Amino acid sequence: MANEIPVRRRHLITRLKQLRLSSGLTQDDVSGAMGWDRGKIHRLEQGRFKRINAADVVALCGLYKASDEEKDALAEIAKQSRKSSWWYRYSDVFAGPFIGLEAEALTIEGFNNSLVPGLFQVPEYIQALIEPALDVTVPRDEVQTRIDVRLQRQRSVLDRKNPPHIWLILDESVLRRQVGGVEVMRTQVRHLREMTERPTIDIQVLPFSAGAHAASGFQFTTLGFEGSDRVVYIETDRDGLYLEEPEQIRRYTLVFDRLQATAMSVEDSARFMDAVVS
């Protein structure tokens, strides 16, 4: 996997580039301000450095006028990325790296066993998910903001110029669980069905009749990038795990292949969704 960029370094590179663009600076501007040769910032943003110096990260954050919190978080990632580890937690980075990785992925493969994945949730469904947490972990005045942010995330991935190819396998319980009630679920399942009409989206349903299967008890998402670079994301209640070792990638690729073989075909799954909302 010669082209592989570990997830820690990929997130760091992506965020530094976003900060540069937000600051309105070109790569030449940065090279001049930092006293670097013209190719260094280009190589850094292309992921061609195996290790990124934490001092460079701090200096770039200062140039880009990043907050102290983000500067410290990114510098820590630069330090940690030098360590050999097959997973990494990003609880110290606002919103985590998943959204940034998702926005750059060329392929997204996922298995969901209880809820519709965020990229495909309609507003009513999102609100129904938030309601049980009101005044506990979610302030009431943040509800609409959270809905808007999730919809913006959907547009940034699904409606971009070259959207990723997405292959989802949904446990039947995802379609049967009454999140928000019957009408909300009808709207939600219709939306999923409409999404299957896009040439870059395939959805399979894993029926209850399949019984035990290769992913019983867990769900995961695999993000594919240029070359053979892939990352497996396993969501947890706080931040999530990012798997990047070849052995781990192979394991989850095999699990996904077995789920595909066990689930209904794409065509039968579309008919199944039609029947659910009829």
TrEMBL record:
It holds the Pfam family HTH_31. It comes from the Bacteria. Residues 16-71 form the HTH cro/C1-type domain. GO terms for molecular function: DNA binding. This is Transcriptional regulator with XRE-family HTH domain. It comes from Nocardiopsis mwathae.
